[in-house]
Amino acid sequence: MSLFPLKRFYARLMLSYLMVTVAVLGVIGIIFITLMERYFFSVEGWQLISRGERAGALLQEPLQQQDIFALKQIITTLAFSYDAYLVVTDKDGTILADSGSEPDRLGLSVEQSEVEHVLSGNVITKQITGPEFNSLFYMAPIYEPGFNPDDMRENEDDSVDSTGHVIGSLAISIPLGPIAGTIAGVTRLGIYAALGAVVLAALIGYSLSRRISRPVEEMSRVALELSRGRFDLRVTSSGGDELGQLADTLNYAVDRVAETIEQQRRIVKQQRDFISDISHEFRAPLTSLRGFLELMRSGKINPQEQKKYLEIMHADALHLSHLVQDLLDLSNLETQQITLNLEAQRPELLLKESLRHLQLSAAAKEIIIEMQEAEDLPAVVVDANRFYQVIVNLVGNAIRFSPPGGVITVRAEPDGSQVKFSVTDCGEGIPEAELPFIWERFYKVDKARTRTDNGSGLGLAIVRQIVEMHGGRVAVESTPGKGSTFSFWLPAEKWTQETAN
Ligand SMILES: Nc1ncnc2c1ncn2[C@@H]1O[C@H](COP(=O)(O)OP(=O)(O)O)[C@@H](O)[C@H]1O
Ligand SMILES: [Mg+2]
Asked: How high is the pLDDT of residue 495?
């Protein structure tokens, strides 16, 4: 249980911060304490040596005169002012005077060989560390008055023997207790500061680690939910750094996955709808056909009625074959299984030719079709048979939705690099809310309209498909009660040739 948080990313991150902090502090601390000790001890050492030299000079005269009382007085005064322990010996090493308090210290720490070493003209400095005391020790020879070994050293006159001038020795020992106390105090202070730094590092490390780990944890949660099929989660905590970029990338990926899935769902739904639409379209004429067939098979109808029923059945069969034809057309167009037979055509000739076939059904409703073509129309690049299909559908609709005796206007005019064709009727019009949908297959504003007027609801879908295959577009405007205008644009030949070069 106690190990659990360490499995978390942020905890491990924080632990590393702490370990680095402690390691750095430890190394710095050890270096600092060592340097501090060395500094304090060397300062103390230099001080001791200079004091020793001055005391030696003071003692020269009394020692020469064997004035024990004066010696005693001098070293007692020095011991008091230096807070040190002093001993004076004669040139044989016999103690002449000491500062009195703890004679055995010197006895403990100085060996006979060392005394002889000093009496033959050498200086000893050392640190004495014992279980109960810790002190610096200095011992130097005392020369006869007027003799200065430094003068000889300056003259580089090594041949002169200073031993003959030694008349005794001085030993000084000062306790290091106070310095050790100071060092311990400073060390304790350093440890407190280090502990504070560790606590501070822990706090900063925690908030820093959380800031880094939060997006990581959030991202892993989003990825997990994604694998479970939830696409609505996104990573919210991000920044300008690499983690922020990763979060953005993940969000983008989730978006794309959600989009693709949504698209697939839509396609599946469209296919399902399409099949149910087709079944629906087929059911009405088939039910009608079956009903009349059964009626006729029963033999209970007179020949006059029989002729009427056959007319209806013929219309039903025609409607079914139209439906199948339109479905095949649309499916071929949508799967691009049709190659367009593109040729440059004069728009006015195309229109005239197409309208010729529609005059008959227009005349049946006493409808007049007017043609208005602009002058200097450029040629259009088009498959003539497909163009004919478009016009038949648009003008066919116009005839169907116009009142008897109405006028339908068909126009062709240049529009930039294209030619705009439009079919305007004075029919019932289309409510604005329905306009965006009328290009969809099987869409009919009046759902009740079926076989009586041969509408399959596929005509406009076919029109749009054909126009877009030519690189054009379609549009519709309508005012309910006044009429509608259906337009489409096709690329002009001039333009096509210019861009081809
Ligand atoms: N000129 C028009 N005036 C009014 N409504 C129209 C016109 N042309 C098309 N529509 C509406 O758009 C629908 C779809 O047209 P279309 O795709 O040609 O199918 P269909 O003609 O078989 O009904 C029509 O059912 C009708 O509601
Ligand atoms: Mg139609």
From this structure: 56
Rounded alpha-carbon distances, angstroms, from residue 76 to 73, 122, 174, 234: 5, 24, 14, 87
User: Is the shortest distance between the CB of 406 and ligand 1 below 6 Å?
Assistant: no
Give the pLDDT of residue 153.
58
Please indicate whether residue 446, judged by its CB atom, sits closer than 6 Å to ligand 1. Answer: yes
458 CA → ligand 2 middle, Å: 7
Using H for helix, E for strand and C for coil, what is the string for 336-368? CCCCCCCEEECHHHHHHHHHHCCHHHHHHCCCE
CA of 454 to the centre of ligand 1 (A): 11
Helices then strands, each counted (H, E), the chain = 14, 12
Three-state secondary-structure class, residue 309? helix
What is this structure's pTM?
Answer: 0.55
Closest CA to 114 of 96, 78, 87, 132: 87
> How many CB atoms within 10 Å of residue 194?
17
Residue with the smallest CA separation from ligand 1 atom 8 is 397
Give the number of other CB atoms < 10 A from CB of residue 55. Answer: 23
Span from the CA of 391 to the centroid of ligand 2 (angstroms)? 10
Ranges under pLDDT 50 in the chain: 1-2, 106-107, 451, 500-501
Give the DSSP letter string of 220-276.
HHHHHHHHTT----------SSHHHHHHHHHHHHHHHHHHHHHHHHHHHHHHHHHHH
- Measured from the Cα of 457, ligand 1's closest atom is 19
Closest listed residue to residue 462, CA positions, set 339, 355, 326? 326
Q: How far is the CA of 429 from the CAs of 1, 362, 388, 399, 486, in angstroms?
A: 76, 18, 23, 12, 11
What are residue 25's phi and psi, to 5 degrees? -60, -40
Closest CA to 137 of 183, 97, 86: 86
Burial of 1 (0-12, 13-18, 19+ CB in 10 A): exposed
In which element (H, E) is residue 8 found? none
pLDDT at 2: 47
Asked if residues 193 and 211 have their Cβ atoms less than 8 Å apart, the reply is no
Taking the CA of residue 446 as reference, the ligand 1 atom at the shortest distance is 27
Which residues have a Cβ under 8 Å from the Cβ of 469 and sit 6 or more positions away? 333, 336, 338, 340, 386
Residue-level pLDDT at 122: 87
Residue 430 near ligand 1, beta carbon < 6 Å: yes
Asked whether 367 lines ligand 1 (CB < 6 A), one says: no
pLDDT at 428: 92
Angle at 346 between CA 343 and CA 350, to 5 degrees: 90
